[in-house]
Every structure is written in C-alpha cells, then in structure tokens.
Design brief:
Blueprint: H1 2-6, E1 11-12, E2 32-33, H2 41-52, H3 60-68, E3 73-78, E4 84-90, E5 95-101, H4 113-127, E6 141-147, E7 160-166, E8 178-183, E9 202-207, H5 211-220, E10 242-246, E11 252-253, E12 266-272, E13 278-283, E14 286-292, E15 296-299, E16 305-313, E17 318-325
Parallel strand pairs: 11-17
Antiparallel strand pairs: 1-2, 3-4, 4-5, 6-7, 8-9, 10-12, 12-15, 13-14, 13-16, 16-17
The structure holds zinc ion.
Length: about 325
C-alpha cells in the first residue's frame, strides 16, 4: 500500500516475500504492475482502518497511545483454556508481534491477548520511532452512496452518506433492511388496499431488523423503533415479533449431566419486540409457564429424540423451535 501511493498507483510483482532475518540482505520486489498481486491496496487500507478502531474494554491505559501518539492497527487472540495469547500491531513503519504463554502450555486465568499481550505490544510501539498513518489509496477507491444505518450500498429508500469505498465494494449487496411500508394516517398501523383506501395510505421508508438483531441494535440505538403491527382486518404477513436467542447454533442439543448423573436442564430464551408481551411456553403439547419481560425457561428433557418448543404471545403470534436432544 505504501508502494502503491508512491508509485503512481502501481503494485510490485514480488511484494509478498518470505521471512528474512538478515539485516544486509536486499529485497527484490520485482517489476511495477497495475494488477494487484494478492490483495488490492484499498482492501488492505480499509482492513487496517477497521482494526485501528477496535475498542476493547479493559485496556484503558493503552488507549492513551491513540489520543496522543500514533495510530496503530491491532488484533489479539487467546487460545482455548487461556494457554497462550498474542497481539499484533501495524504502523506504516513497524510490525510488532507479542506472544505470551507458559513454556509447559499450562493455562492461566486472565492470560488473554487483550490483558497480557496487547499492553506489552503498546509499550514496544512506544519505544520505537513514531510514524504517521497510511494514506488512502485514492486510485483504488470510488465514491459511493452508502446507507447511513446499515453501512451497505444504499438503495433508493435509504438515508445516505457519501463515502470512499474499495472499488470492489460496488459489487456488494444493496441495503435490504430499509423497507417501504404502508402506514395508516396516524402512522401506528400497517395497512394495505385490502382494508384502507389509497388516499389514506402513506408509504414510509423504515429500517427494519429481524427481532433478534433488533434486540441487540436497540441496546445501543435507543431511537430504533419496531415495525408497526398490521391493523386488524388487513390481509398480509403479520410482523415478525419474536425470535429465539438461546440456545444458539444448530438444533442438536447434547444435555450435560450433573455430578450425580442427573441430566441438567436447558435454558431457552427469546426476545419479543414488545417487552411487556406475555409469552406462553410449551414443550411439545404440554404447557410449561408464562413469562414477561425476561422470556426464558429452563426445560428438563426426560427423553432424548425430537422435541418442539413453542412460544405463543398474548396477541396469538407463535414461533416454534424443533430440537434433537441427545
Ligand atoms: Zn438502508
């Protein structure tokens, strides 16, 4: 990317080289070419930009480096069982990699990339000469209208911001979270021509996320509003109001056993777009309980095999999850 900006937007044929520890060895970077060899300059630039903005909790001290000194793109990793951890950072001049672990591979609580490796990495960057940040490789980017909510390419009904993006970004999908919905005059219900005259229908562009995504999004965006319900008497698809949030993953569940050999219960959770909605839970056809606000149940599966968990809310909307218990 540095070569790209200083060489009239050209790449070098041998930019990617094997590791070399000899100080006086000469690099043969090859000839200039307009074709990318591995990654395009803009995809590297935007990749590093994204890693520069990683906001990790518990590393406040290191954040001083971003305020005062220089910008660093960085990433951490922790192995299963906290056996070892690493952190790698990049500036225009240097790459610093730090590995932390015990020689015998013993895991230690708190041995994570963020808490153990990253602080050492930032200290090392502090000892090295500072460098400025990479310049944007303009010639490998294009200006595009991007949806200000989803970050995807804007559709005709999205609120937009104009941004420079990698040229290949023009081939990505348009935002499909903005939907044109038809509301009644008051804006409180969805309607259509089966139940309302055209004059009383107002088309509105709305940012609509699936229930589970909406639940996470609303935690950080209090102004998010759910899709209004379909007015009674109107034909059409009802609003999706519930989604299971736990268990995640596929529908095969292996039930863990407790110390004395009894089978543990499995927690099922769901999110509802109306927190006050009452949700009635069923295992197969047996009623379990009713929940509100915190919609979760612990289910004891007495038999292995196929089971259906059904949740029905106070408006009659229903979702089902089929699971295989092992
Ligand atoms: Zn959009």
């Amino acid at each position: 990317m540095v070569h790209f900006n200083t060489n009239s937007s050209q790449y070098l044929t041998n930019e990617f080289q094997p590791q070399d520890y000899l100080q006086d060895s000469e690099l043969q970077l090859g000839d200039f070419t307009f074709d990318k060899t591995h990654f395009s300059a803009s995809s590297i630039f935007f990749g590093l930009e994204a890693m520069k903005e990683l906001n990790r909790p518990g590393i406040d001290k290191s954040w001083r480096y971003f305020d005062s000194a220089q910008q660093i793109a960085w990433k951490t990793g922790t192995s299963f069982g906290n056996r070892d951890a690493w952190s790698i950072g990049v500036t225009k001049k240097y790459v610093v990699g730090v590995w932390v672990g015990n020689a015998d591979g013993e895991g230690r609580p708190g041995l994570t990339g963020v808490s153990a490796a990253a602080p050492v990495m930032f200290n090392l960057f502090d000892l090295l000469p500072k460098s400025d940040w990479f310049n944007i490789p303009y010639d490998d980017t294009v200006e595009a209208k991007v949806c200000s909510k989803s970050g995807m390419l804007a559709s005709e009904i999205c609120p937009t911001v104009t941004k420079r993006i990698p040229e290949q970004g023009l081939e990505t999908a348009q935002c499909h979270y903005h939907k044109l919905v038809h509301l009644d005059k008051t804006g409180t219900y969805r309607v259509n021509t089966s139940c309302e005259s055209m004059d009383n229908i107002q088309p509105v562009s709305k940012f609509v996320l699936p229930p589970l995504m909406a639940w996470y999004y609303k935690k950080k965006n209090a102004d998010y509003t759910y899709l209004p319900p379909l007015r009674e008497g109107c034909e059409g698809m009802p609003t999706e109001v519930m989604a299971f949030s736990e268990p995640t993953g596929n529908n095969v569940i292996i039930v863990p056993k407790g110390i004395s050999g009894e089978r543990n219960s499995i927690i099922f959770k769901l999110v509802h777009i109306r927190p006050a909605a009452k949700v009635h839970w069923y295992l197969n056809d047996t009623y379990l309980k009713t929940t509100q606000n915190f919609n979760e149940v612990a289910i004891d599966f007495e038999q292995t095999g196929h089971h259906t968990i059904t949740a029905i809310d106070d408006a009659g909307d229903e979702i089902r999850k089929r699971v295989v218990i092992k």
